[in-house]
Structure formats: structure tokens, C-alpha cells
From TrEMBL:
This protein's UniProt keywords: DNA integration, DNA-binding, Endonuclease, Hydrolase, Metal-binding, Multifunctional enzyme, Nuclease, Nucleotidyltransferase, RNA-directed DNA polymerase, Transferase, Zinc, Zinc-finger
Residues within the DNA-binding region(s): 256-296
Alphabetical list of PROSITE patterns matching this protein: INTEGRASE, INTEGRASE_DBD, ZF_INTEGRASE
Native source organism of the sequence: Hirundo rustica rustica
Protein origin, superkingdom: Eukaryota
Protein name per UniProt: RNA-directed DNA polymerase
EC number: 2.7.7.49
Amino acid sequence: MHISSHTDLPGFIAEGNRRADALAVPVEMAPLPNIFGQAKISHQLFHQNAPGLIRQFHLTWEQARAIVSMCPSCQQHSLPALSAGANPRGWNSCEVWQTDVTRIMSFGRQRYVHVSVDTFSGAVYASAHTGEKSGDAMKHLIQAFSFLSIPKSIKTDNGPTYTSRKFRSFLQQWGVEHKTGIPYSPTGQAIVERTHQNLKRVLSQQHQSLKLETPQIQLSKDLFTLNFLNCTFENLNPPTVRHFRENCQLQLEAKPPVMIKDPATRETEGPHDLITWGRGYACVSTPSGPKWVPAK
């Protein structure tokens, strides 16, 4: 129980309140560790890569490399090389995805992990299922669409999961073109195969803190690390930033000129170029700069 007014009144409740405040003071005044210390703590939690540490904490290359090299889990689970194969990439996000299924035996009944990756941005979505049939693949893709938007085309292998009439009809309903490669060939699906390895590597690195969680919770933390924290030295923006910044579906195609009514003078002005708008507001470009106006 906590007293809203801190007084010197007698009684066990007031005394307990004073003791609680005394114990809380050291916690409130405890200083945060320095930036290097914060980066180490973050890496212990997420195991993001060195470029991700540099971007997030503004470390030097030597500092970031030292944190990763001192992490036993990261040294134990290194990423092997994989042949690139024939892997056409999209020029923008949501142009070409690769989709496949991998198995993570520690997930038990939900060991079939369906994975989709955008070949331009590297943004990835994964979900745990009890099977690898067409119905499971369709459930996964609906979730992936809600997370990454709808792609123009999806490339899969030529296995039975993706060649059924039911699956083809599903993609037609969503307006997605379906491309297939050689059945069970890892080189034709090298981008998603490498994503499988990345998922499993990060899961292994984070296993100690997540071993009691459900498969989807484990995947969620894994996806957060891959999509929001990890990046490369060539592009320090993480995959999610690249994905939504270059998504043509989310960009306003036209900025039509509009007339507005000044809230102060009640006079009509314009036409002005529309910058953005939403429920109850709009923003237009005026000679003096952007101007926000209410709907009424």
C-alpha cells in the first residue's frame, strides 16, 4: 500500500511508506552505464551484428567488433557460406519475395517454420505452423502480407506445398504472380535459404533467455533483431527502414492542388499542393512553408 500524501503521521502504513521510499531512492539515482556498456547489455539481449551496434550506439568499428568477438554465443554460431545461384532481386521492396519452409525441431509440433523474405530490402517474416501443406503456407502469407504488405510476385520451389490448385488460386485472389524454381534446390532459393540460417543462428544465440517461451514469441524476438537492429556496412539502414522507404504502394502518387479555408480569416485560399492528409486534417504547401489546416 502506498500513501498519496507523504506525511510524518504515525502508524504502520506511513512507516512502511517511508521505508519503501528509502529503498526506491538508490534505484532512481542509479546512473546508466556508458554507451559502450549499454551496447554490451543490448547485445547480450538481442545479439545484433557489429554494423547494427555501430548504427544504434555510434560505436567505432573496433568497439563493435570487440563486443561481438567477446560474445561466446556469437562465436559458437557463425554463419556458413552459401552459393548465390540464380536469384533475381526486386528493384524496390515488395517486387519479388522468396518463400520457403524450414524445420526447427526444438519447436515441437510447431516445428514447420514458413519464411518469406523481400529480395530488395531483406525484410523477413516467419511463422511457426504444425505442417507444411498449402493451407499452412496460405496462413503464413496472410500474416506476412499484414506485416510487409503485398508483393507483386513470390518465388518458391516447385514442391507440392506451392503447386496445388488451392495455393495458385489463393495467390490469384491476392493479385500476386507466382514463380517457381527447381524442386528442393537450395541455390535457386539462395536468399531465403540464407534467411533460414540467419533465423536459426539468432534463435540459437537468444535461446538461453527465451527457452521457456512459445515458438512464436521466440520468432518474434528473432524477427525484431533481424528487421530492426541488424544492418550492413554497405547500408546502415536496417531492413525495415529500407523496406517501407522504398515501397511504391505506400507513397502518394499524386499531390493534387487543393483549396483551403483559413481558420482565422475564414477566407478561401489556394490552390496549394497537398502534402498529406488524414481524418480531420490536411497539410498543404504554401509560399511561407507547410500549413496544417483542420477539416472544419
